[in-house]
Amino acid sequence: MSGLDSALKPRLKRRSTFEYVSWVVCILVGIGILSSVATNPNFKWDVVAKYFTHESILRGLMLTIFLTVASMALGTLLGLGLAIMRASTIKPIAALAGVYITIFRGTPVLVQLIFWFNLSALYPNLSIGIPFTDIGTAIDTNALMGPITAALVGLTLNEAAYMAEIIRGGFSSVGKGQIEAADSLGMSGAMKMRKVIIPQAMPSIIPATGNQVIGMFKGTSLVSVLGVAELLQSAQLIYARTYETIPLLIVASLWYLVMTMLLSYPQSKLEQKYSHTSVRVPRRARKVTLTAPEGIAR
């Protein structure tokens, strides 16, 4: 059994002199940077501590979290629909989804946000009603498309295009034999999608979606150009009044860093759970002794 035990043990890598020297250099550089940052009075760490839990900063943080969660939820649902349309055998439907994905992935999200905020310049009023009748109502686009609404619409529609490609890639990872087996059982298209394709595509979709969540949280800072008082805009409003630009930017950066670290932990767990290539090696193998039926050890 010694051969089995040695096979289960992880390989030991001999550390070289260069590795030890690299550790020493990195530690010295890190200590130098931390010392410079901690002792430089221009960073004004007392101001950072004062505004880190300021009411307006926390309110902006809550709005940032809301935009992230809402945009990701709506964008994922819309992206799922677009991915199904893209995989459709009906050419016009697949082409329509392809055009949508191309447009929203091919233009900057900042331009899209500004476009939706100024939608009333193109359509001052939107009419909702029954065609060829007088039954309907008009909606003032300028009143409807406020800053937060424009931010939510812009982020959602842009995220839907990226999620559609992520989900479509997950669909492509499902083996052709699985789909043929579902067809042989007489499953309908909806049942095949719900029972076969989506469950098997999840291992490829979930880790990439975790990256999108982190990217969306940081991407919400773009809505500050619309006047939305999210985290960055809240910091900007404060330093526009106090002229303490650097400390307030540090406050916003620290909150982005903290939230990104909090989101990275469940993402790493999901990646470990759904990774196709992860190989788990037991830390310690139990010794197994084979015995004969009479209890005599072999």
- The backbone outline, from C-alpha atoms, is flat
Q: How are the strands ordered across the major sheet?
A: 1-2
Relative strand content = under 5%
Low-pLDDT sequence parts: 277-283
InterPro entries: AA_ABC_transptr_permease_3TM, ArtM/GltK/GlnP/TcyL/YhdX-like, MetI-like, MetI-like_sf
GO molecular function: transmembrane transporter activity
Family: Belongs to the binding-protein-dependent transport system permease family.
Main location: membrane
Q: What can you tell me about this protein's structure?
A:
With 298 residues, the protein is mainly alpha-helical. The chain has a single domain, classed as MetI-like (MetI-like fold), CATH 1.10.3720. It is 69% helix and 3% strand. It has 12 helices and 2 strands, in the order ααααααββαααααα. The protein has helices at 2-8, 17-39, 45-52, 55-86, 91-106, 109-117, 141-144, 147-172, 176-184, 189-219, 231-242, 245-274; strands at 125-129, 136-140. Strands 1-2 form a two-stranded antiparallel ribbon. β1 (125-129) and β2 form a beta hairpin. α4 (55-86) crosses α8 (147-172) and α11 runs antiparallel to α12. The longest helix has 32 residues, at 55-86. It is flat and about 70 Å long. The relative contact order is 0.13. The model is unreliable at 277-283 (pLDDT under 50).
